[in-house]
Amino acid sequence: MTARQLVSPERIVVAIVVVVVVIVCATTPQFLTLNNTKAILASTSVVGMAALGLTFITIVGSVVSLATAQSMAVVAMVFLAAQSWGLVPAMLISLVVGVVIGGIQGLAVGYWSINPVVLTIVTAFALTGLATLVSGGTTVNASGDGFKGLNATPGGIPLSVFVFAALALASQIVLQFSIKGRQIYLVGENRLAATSAGLPVARVVVFAWAAFGLLSSVGAMFLAAFNTSATINVGGSLTFDAIAAVLTGGTSIAGGRGSAIRTVIGVLAISIISDVLLLRGFSTGAQIAVKGVLILVFVVVVQVRAGRVAR
Fold first, then answer.
1. CATH code at 252?
2. Would you place residue 14 in the very low, low, confident or very high pLDDT band (cuts 50, 70, 90)?
């Protein structure tokens, strides 16, 4: 690496942002405490599982899902409603529902080339309407107490943190070392070339979306367990936060580049920034605005770097 590459404008921008964040964190009261660290890890895990799923569909070239929060809310509602059958059956049913929601969208994108942004907007509306119709617009409460096992804190750390770490490792292994993972990168890099090379492009896209459904469903179950009840709005800003984590981690919005490990770094960054803003008394609107600016900075940096590599 040359000296010019080391002091490139995008690296300077990232370095400045990192230094500012570190200084702000160090000077924020209550930030450097054990309880706050546990709170950050807990919030990181749920968003992180959704972000890991988004990583698959972003790398494969499907941009992002704008129905992430709604998809997870539906799974959370199903998970709590199925508690009367026991924890394991409820988990299996929830995972199937999540994979089906993701897989159907993958079919539309992979086989019919539907624009994923338009598709996920429509999906968000459809899921909202369906959930409201089935639940009658009321809150879904747990029909049993098996879900409480997901709120365990082994060693004082939420179980969701360990699950998130395991899923991140598994996702990285799949993306980096499996045949399907390598195909995801190839399809995302150049779908036309992948088709010409004989790759099963449509099936690869469906696989990526099914992975999104599976990973986000795990997060949805923990989300339901944390809240003990669910409505279609239980996901809150999960869509925005998950997208922010993926893009901040350096996954290219154009597809073909990124990793699960980068997403983990992005999730931690977003969670820390959100936590600092909350501790400093910023409103929800201000928090979203700050995160939006940071995402813009990192997206520009990634695209500029990608442009240089292409030249």
1. 1.10.3470
2. low
